[in-house]
Design goal:
Length: about 300
């Protein structure tokens, strides 16, 4: 039977290794220039546009405006920020500008990755990878929002409860710890939210079965609780349980969706076994379903 390698990717022209490397270089150059330009805009571009006289007295760069917005949304009023070191504000300023530069450059970076990889994908891979990417990005963005709006503020509020018990009369935190906690918690929550999409993809390609996941539920839940505790180290058990409940809901929804794809794959495999050898594509070996052109690789059989 012909292997899947004989199935030709769509719009794929033969390129030498050097041509691939040159294309990769050009696309990386576009990504780096985009990140650099947006980071520079974050550092110097004023957030409030007005007359030159107003900008002289009210100048505030975009990165400062975004940090103020995050500060007002996340930080409890009782928690004070202080520098900690003389260089901490400058470090936070540049690190935040780079992080926001990467965030706002992500559409361009994603597009360049897509254009580089897309010609090499087989038709059946495209039908699988595009829904996965849409689900992955949607879940990741939802996780970022949940981490920023729910988990992070609750973590700081829960942390304040223990200040009086340890003799702390001035509840404060360094700006580096404050913003790094927000960054780590938000990104970690976003990554964990993508679990259902990854689970469904692994089941669709046959690398994982829903039965194996269901058999090891208690171990998976235990690992999830440890991850929740790592994401919110200062949130306490109550915060960890809330986050664990969200993770469990995501996992169970992923299992539910994966079962449907698993059932469809098993039905297709059963149908393929029943198809005679004469009714298979002579290039990729997939069933022709009585058609002259293969529905998988698109090649004519005569």
């Amino acid at each position: 039977m012909p292997s899947k390698k004989s199935e030709a990717p769509r719009d794929m022209k033969e390129m030498t290794l050097l041509e691939h490397l040159l294309e990769l270089r050009d696309r990386l150059k576009v990504c780096l220039i985009t990140v650099g330009v947006i980071t520079l805009l974050m550092l110097v571009f004023p957030a409030q546009l007005g007359s030159p006289e107003e900008l002289l007295y009210m100048y505030k760069p975009l990165v400062s405006f975004i940090l103020d917005w995050i500060n007002s949304m996340v930080r409890p009023q009782a928690l004070e920020l202080f520098a900690g070191t003389i260089t901490a504000p400058l470090e936070v300023y540049f690190i935040a500008a780079l992080v926001f530069g990467l965030i706002f450059s992500s559409p361009v970076i994603g597009y360049e990755i897509f254009k580089y990889v897309d010609p090499a994908l087989y038709p059946h891979e495209r039908r699988m990878i595009y829904p996965f990417l849409a689900a992955f990005l949607g879940l990741f963005i939802a996780g970022l929002a949940f981490g920023l709006y729910v988990i992070t503020p609750f973590t700081f509020k829960a942390m304040l409860i223990f200040f009086p018990y340890t003799g702390v009369t001035f509840p404060g935190i360094t700006i580096m710890d404050f913003y790094m906690t927000i960054l780590i918690v938000t990104l970690a929550t976003g990554v964990v939210f993508t679990t259902p999409a990854i689970l469904v993809l692994l089941v669709r390609v046959g690398l994982l079965s829903t039965k194996s996941i269901e058999r090891n539920r208690k171990w998976i839940y235990g690992a999830m609780y440890i991850i929740a505790a790592i994401i919110t180290p200062d949130g306490g058990m109550f915060t960890n349980l809330i986050l664990l409940g969200v993770f469990v809901g995501l996992l169970e929804s992923g299992i539910f969706i994966a079962k449907r794809y698993e059932k469809q794959r098993e039905e297709r495999e059963a149908e393929v076994e029943e198809v005679s050898v004469e009714d298979r594509c002579r290039f990729c070996g997939k069933p022709l379903e009585g058609k002259l052109f293969c529905p998988y690789c698109g090649r004519a059989q005569r």
